[in-house]
Structure prediction request, 132 residues.
Amino acid sequence: MAIATGAAGALGIRSAGTAARRERLFFGGMAAVFAITVLAGFSRTYYLNGSFGAPFALTPLLHVHGIAFTAWMLLLVTQTSLIASGRPQLHRRLGIVGVALAAALVWLGIQVAITRTSEGTIADHGAPPLIF
Prediction:
């Protein structure tokens, strides 16, 4: 076996274990990049609201929306970590939570878009309400 493994390495053939490790590293890294991007992108208007000057008006619906989408990002990092650590059973069980959370996110996204557009409050942070 050692000779075969050594020959495969000399020929540039990767073992399945190496490919799986690289794949886990890639998906775990991407989950971390997504989480950092969300934190950076929403730091001024949600996570650190008010720390950079005039606070962004957060309604209860926006808080629920922010908490749910933060939970989604934490679930993404958790799920990739579970696979990387070899715990697919727990990953699958949490997947059920992910399905329920995804349904809630769709509903919340639509509700926030309708509410904010009807209030005309999107205009002060980007696109005019009807274009949004």
Observations:
- The chain is about 75% helix and 0% strand.
- The two ends are 61 Å apart (CA to CA).
